[in-house]
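Exercise 7.
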Amino acid sequence: MNAKLLMKTARSLMADGKGLLAMDESDPTCNKRFEKLGIRQTVETRRAYRELIVTTPRLGESISGAILYDDTIRQITKDGILLVEVLNHAGIIPGIKVDSGADEMAGHPGEKITIGLDRLRERLAEYAGLGARFAKWRAVITIGEGLPSCACIHANAHALARYAALCQEAGLVPIVEPEVLMDGSHSLKRCCEVTENIIRAVFNEFYDQRVMIEGIILKPNMILPGLRCSTQESVSEVADATVMCLMRVVPAAVPGIAFLSGGQPGEQASARLNAMNVRFRSRLPWPLSFSFARAIQQPAMQIWRGDDRNIKAAQEALLHRANCNLAARRGEYTTAMEKS
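Solution. The predicted structure, written as tokens, is:
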């Protein structure tokens, strides 16, 4: 393990007020989103869409790293240039999703365990050779009647720690994503309790697996009520609950926290991140950043719709959302930015 390299990469991912762009949707997930918009679900349309993203002018001014899918890290532009090379030229660090998705957890109806540890060492070595400098693994935690179970929390925390240790061995910074899902009718308080439990379990497993916490990035959910909860707290209440939760369980040595959007509308995700940085940035031991997928990509996909004539307008929409999150990371986001 090259500790200096890992810490340098982690710091670079969190530098200059920038954040991460998640463009690591699996082929089935990408196809579902294309289908809703009437876009053909083919290898070529997926490649063309990802080229649209990485060739967006000035994207590197707001995005420090891009999380790719297995197909994407191998793809080339229509001019024959590897997408990884395009990212590097833009000053964006390439990363890779390495989990194989969530599977039903035996003996625990309604709960899932993320799979993909088999032969992960070999896959990480290959991805490093293809140009990746960091990786991502997502665990999903559902809140419901009697859920999550202790077994689900600890099984997923253990898998995240084993993944992180293997990443660091390969010289890749692990992006560690324990996601408490927004689905359900649970309260903000219940989300806070579950999030605190899973993050605490993850760091306990880190110590057991000898993961160097100075060389990881944490990618948690914000503390939010369930989508069906009758009480939906304000932006400032979400910001307060999220930061207080993280302050209780995340060590100061962690280089940074990059929130997932979890299906939040882009403007809402930006406003909540902005409130955290406005209210708490001077008191935090780690930067609060973003690692958004749909909250950055969705407007661009809706404009593009598979038509090359819409590429420029789609790229402008993508850059706008990235810049809004850059501003939120710095505590400078306002709703007036959405009208510009």
